Amino acid sequence: MRVALPFVAAVAIQLLQEQPAPAQYPTVRKSVAVELVTDKKKPYIEHFEDVPFVTNNKVCLFPGENFGVDVTVNGKAVVVTYNPRHKKADVEFWFRQQKASNNNRQFMILEVESRLSRMLTFNAALIFPEQKRDYDTHIFHVNPKEQNFYSWPRPTVKLTLEDFRF
Fold first, then answer.
1. Is 71 exposed, middle or buried (0-12, 13-18, 19+ CB in 10 A)?
2. How far is the C-alpha of 100 from the C-alpha of 105, rounded, in Å?
3. Helix (H) or strand (E) holding 50
4. Facing residues of 32 across strands?
5. According to the model, what pLDDT value does residue 24 have?
6. Which of 58, 108, 120, 157 could join 162 via S-S bond, C-beta 3.0 to 4.6 A?
7. Residue ranges of the domains in the chain?
8. Alpha-carbon gap, residue 57 to 31, rounded angstroms
């Protein structure tokens, strides 16, 4: 019996090692269809293909998305990596279009929740419907273990967050 237990343990370890690794979450969106309510009668629709969630320390958000990033320091550089498990991420983002209750106008809102122990600061660039260039906006920050909200009155097709720093 003593000989069988090490053998069974060795077989179990071998079987576990042979199991394929769980599929990783995709880090690139294959296809995105953005649909926004605008002042015009028809909604604005734009399609994007093969857009990464995070690339070169830039976080890309489309309306309706909710995901997180992990933030680490490598030397003097702050490194941001995609984390699809937004509730477990260091920082969680939720970008959406919402209707104001006082005048029924649509506006964009970015909700940022930090689980970090330090204040995080970053810049943002917006792309509006039918315009192909980025419009830089003011610097954002989120305090440790807090949640911040940022809003814009214009429909926004894409929001890029960049230049993360402590």
1. buried
2. 5
3. strand 44-52
4. 48
5. 61
6. 58
7. 23-165
8. 21
Give SS3 for 25: coil
Write the pLDDT tens digit of every residue in 116-153: 999 999 999 999 998 878 888 878 999 999 999 999 99
Return all residues near 152 (Cβ < 8 A) that are at least 6 apart: 107, 108, 126, 137
Q: What type of residue sits at position 5?
A: L
User: Six-digit token pair at 46?
Assistant: 């734009």
Task: Please state the rounded mean pLDDT for residues 53-80.
Answer: 96
Main-chain dihedrals φ then ψ at residue 8, nearest 5 degrees: -65, -45
Q: What percent of the chain has pLDDT over 90?
A: 69
Residue 17: phi, psi to the nearest 5?
-70, -30
**For 152, which DSSP code?**
E
Backbone angles phi, psi at 21, to 5 degrees: -65, 145
**Three-state secondary structure of 69-121:** EEEEEECCEEEEEEECCCCCCCEEEEEEEEECCCCCCEEEEEEEEECCCCCEE
